[in-house]
Write a structure and sequence with these properties.
The longest helix is centred in the first third of the chain and has 28 residues. The chain folds into 3 domains: about 45 residues; about 240 residues, no CATH class; about 100 residues, no CATH class. The protein is α+β, with helices and mostly antiparallel strands. The protein is elongated. The strands form 2 sheets. Strands 1, 2, 3, 4, 5, 8, 9 and 13 form an 8-stranded mixed sheet that branches. Strands 6, 7, 10, 11 and 12 form a 5-stranded antiparallel sheet that branches. The protein has 15 helices and 13 strands. A hairpin with a 2-residue loop joins strand 2 and strand 3.
Length: about 500
């Protein structure tokens, strides 16, 4: 509404005088651009964090169920925190992590849905209510907490670990007075992932803050959340960190992306070829935080947080074993050799792909060229680099730039579908260039038969700069027990 009013005022002023029309047009264009960017940010945020809504039974203590949606909010692009892996300042002058005004909690019981109210501000000081994962109001949903884990042993282990995580979260707020909403927990499982040849179960704890609302002078509950604490067991939460740390290459080889492609069963998890395991590390401070396992890393610096908004800020703790890095650089030699392996799989996959099989002769020539010749040329380029460079040069970290490489393919009019990952050169720190990392095989414990045993964890606390969420993030940060969390690992 403020934007609309501003645009209207500018238009009126333009009608009254023509001497500054050019400047006014620039202002108008800027506001329109900002509005469009805000809308795009909201759409992107929804795409990253899709959730499922469930119907509600208000008879169950008249509190809505723990829906797992988030409140869409716009925000600046995440930026590098200047104090990565260092605890925040708690003085209010140093940032928003401290509450600016003394908080006074209204006495009495938590409000119920339908109780009378006068304003949201009044409700913000009303006592909150906690809901454990066992209190999730849908028995069928609770029964699926560990559905994606296979064995009874793994399900039992995962339940024990998440129960301990829930207790650690509860202990962190032992002296904390929740206000302004409900703090609702649930568990989930996501199946399995391979780290080199180590199979680990991926399961999660989540607890989210649902604000009280005052609608038509009656208490209601926002069924979307903007503040949420998640713990990812045996996962770096790449889907959440993707602007800063992401899978370096897409899996576009179907079954041929797996090491043992001949015996691969569709839908199963299995080890993949080396190239498919690489990560693009776009933020060196985040990589340092991952490998240190101490302190936290935040995607927006404290001094850049917009006050009293729903713009999301994410703070991360990486829980890992001491003295052993979780991520290690991929050398140039490793990358080049993994390209050769990839090209061999391309030779198997492309002729059987739908794009190739259903294309006419003319289309094949246009999009694939002489496939055998294209693949032979790609191999020759890589072998030449391996042969002509010293061991020292080849031992340096591989830094790649797929965007630039694609541009060079187009510039040389190479066939689009068969020229993927043609090697040109290694890059430095140019825009869009990314150093490559991989999971350290020496990090993971040997002979662990139970895939649900925690090897590492990512704690992600997303919050907004509203009074209640700021109190929650400050309390969790101040009471974070590094030793207790690390003690969960095997």
């Amino acid at each position: 509404m403020k934007t609309i009013k501003a645009l209207f005022a500018i238009l009126l002023f333009m009608l009254c005088g023509s001497s500054s029309q050019a400047q006014l047009l620039k202002k108008l264009e800027k506001k329109v651009t900002q509005a469009a960017q805000k809308s795009a940010d909201k759409a992107a945020d929804k795409a990253v964090d899709k959730t499922v809504s469930k119907p509600i039974d208000k008879a169950a203590d008249k509190v809505l169920d723990a829906d797992v949606k988030k409140k869409p909010a716009s925000g600046a692009n995440p930026q590098q925190h200047p104090d990565s892996a260092i605890p925040p300042q708690t003085d209010e002058k140093e940032g928003l992590a401290a509450t600016e005004e003394p908080f006074v909690l209204t006495s009495g019981a938590p409000p119920k849905i339908g109780d009378p109210c006068t304003s949201k501000e009044e409700l913000a000081r009303m006592p909150g209510k906690y809901f454990t994962a066992e209190e999730y109001p849908w028995p069928a949903a609770r029964a699926e907490y560990f559905k994606k884990l296979t064995t009874a042993q793994e399900k039992t282990s995962a339940k024990q670990v998440l129960g301990t995580i829930e207790k650690l979260e509860q202990q962190s707020r032992a002296d904390f007075a929740l206000a302004g909403g409900t703090w609702e927990a649930h568990y989930s499982s996501e199946g399995y992932h391979y780290f080199e040849n180590r199979k680990l179960a991926d399961y999660r704890f989540q607890t989210a803050f649902y604000e009280y609302l005052c609608i038509k002078n009656k208490v209601d509950r926002n069924d979307e959340y903007s503040t949420v604490l998640r713990v990812f067991v045996n996962s770096l939460a790449i889907n959440v960190l993707q602007k800063h740390l992401s899978n370096a290459f897409s899996d576009n080889l179907s079954n041929y992306a797996y090491k043992d492609w001949k015996n691969y069963k569709s839908g199963a998890e299995a080890p993949k070829i080396a190239l498919m395991n690489y990560l693009a590390g776009k933020n060196p401070d985040l990589i340092a935080a991952v490998n240190s396992g101490t302190g936290y890393w935040q995607d927006v610096p404290e001094n850049e947080i917009s006050k009293d908004t729903y713009d999301p800020i994410c703070r991360y703790w990486l829980v890992k074993k001491a003295d052993v890095p979780l991520l290690v650089p991929v050398s140039r030699k490793e990358y080049l050799e993994s390209l050769l392996e990839y090209y061999e799989r391309e030779a198997l996959y492309i002729p059987k792909s739908n794009n190739y099989g259903f294309s006419s002769a003319e289309q094949r020539q246009r999009y694939f060229g002489d496939l055998s010749a294209v693949l032979t040329n790609k191999k020759a380029l890589v072998n030449k680099v391996l042969k002509e460079n010293s061991a020292e040069w080849l031992s340096k970290q591989a830094v790649v730039n797929p965007v630039e490489d694609t541009y060079l393919n187009q510039k040389q009019n190479l066939p689009e579908y068969s020229s993927d990952l043609t090697f040109y050169k290694f890059y430095d720190n140019e825009k869009e260039a990314s150093p490559l990392y991989k999971y350290n095989p020496d990090y993971f414990s040997d002979n662990v038969e139970n895939a649900a045993k925690p090897q590492f964890m990512t704690i992600a606390f997303r919050y907004v700069s509203k009074p209640a969420p700021l109190r929650l993030i400050k309390n969790f940060t101040d009471n974070f027990d590094q030793e207790a969390w690390t003690g969960l690992l095997h």
